[in-house]
Write a structure and sequence with these properties.
Elements (H helix, E strand, L loop, with lengths): L1 E6 L11 H8 L4 E6 L12 E2 L9 E2 L1 H12 L8 E11 L2 H8 L3 E4 L9 H8 L4 E5 L9 H12 L10 H4 L22 E2 L2 E2 L9 H19 L14 H9 L12
Parallel strand pairs: 1-2, 1-6, 5-6, 5-7
Antiparallel strand pairs: 3-4, 8-9
Helix pairs in contact: 3-5
């Protein structure tokens, strides 16, 4: 996969040289290109922002440098076209499902903004001929979109074949599509079996795969009910068994039995 990032702070992306993403780059799985937006500003001060039309606080990033930068990135491979991702608090939520969708793309172009954002004509221009997604990593505002790009690149990069040592890790993630979809992952443990007087759950030492699977699902339901109760409403009733329904009732989330498979 090729990833391009245009930013006024390309040095912000030094973390992409370390850990799983760094190793993926070394092995050629991930090809990351960083671009300094100011290289396409032509005045002596390399200005990339100006005051907003209509008044208001803050500054808006100018369309000229962004247009030239994107054009030059697109020219790097005229036979292909990237999917452009614009980090913004007003975008669609970034989810594990969307990360999986991006992981199937051959080329992603991230355009993290600063100030009050990029002149809206830029994305209207490229959205007329390319796939342009405005994406939010949460209901809060950052100083710029670079941190959001780091989040998305790591979420996408770890899904690429050969990046994780154990491919099952991505399948068992919280929010990964499958039997545990929309459930948070439960607690995890490793050696030693006792630490500071705290023992791991006995079931994990039983070797009984069925009981362990049941315990893990129960703990996932409990954690989801505690931390993200709104996700329980999105569970498919057809995927729940009698044990699931009884546990959810115990946790204060009764399920409509008329719509449940028995």
């Amino acid at each position: 996969m090729r990833i391009d990032v245009i930013s006024i702070f390309p040095e912000y992306f030094a973390p992409l040289d370390v850990s799983l993403i760094g190793k993926a780059r070394e092995r050629g799985i991930l090809d990351v290109h960083l671009h300094q937006l100011r290289d396409w500003a032509h005045d002596v001060h390399r200005t990339v922002d100006d005051t907003p039309y209509g008044g208001g606080p803050g500054m808006v990033m100018k369309p000229g440098p962004w247009g030239e930068a994107i054009d030059d990135v697109l020219a790097a491979d005229p036979r292909s076209r990237p999917r452009i991702i614009v980090p913004t608090p007003s975008g669609v939520p970034f989810t594990q499902r969307l990360a999986m969708e991006y992981a199937a793309e051959p080329w992603l172009l991230f355009t993290p903004a600063r100030y009050e954002g990029i002149d809206s004509r830029v994305m209207a221009e490229y959205g007329s001929r390319l796939r342009v997604d405005e994406v939010s990593i949460g209901d809060y505002v950052l100083a710029g979109g670079e941190a959001a790009v780091l989040v998305m690149v790591e979420a996408v990069g770890r899904l690429l074949p050969g990046v994780l040592g154990n491919a099952r890790s991505a399948v068992d993630d919280s929010f990964a599509p499958g039997a545990m979809e929309n459930l948070l992952e439960g607690p995890v443990y490793t050696k030693p079996p006792e630490w500071r007087g705290r023992e791991i759950p006995e079931v994990l030492l039983s070797g009984h795969h069925g009981r362990i699977a049941r315990w893990r699902r129960d703990e996932a339901l409990r954690r989801t009910a505690k931390n993200r109760p709104e996700l329980l409403a999105e569970l498919d009733p057809e995927s729940m068994d009698k044990h699931d329904r009884l546990l959810l009732e115990e946790l204060g989330f009764p399920v409509d039995r008329e719509n449940m498979a028995h």
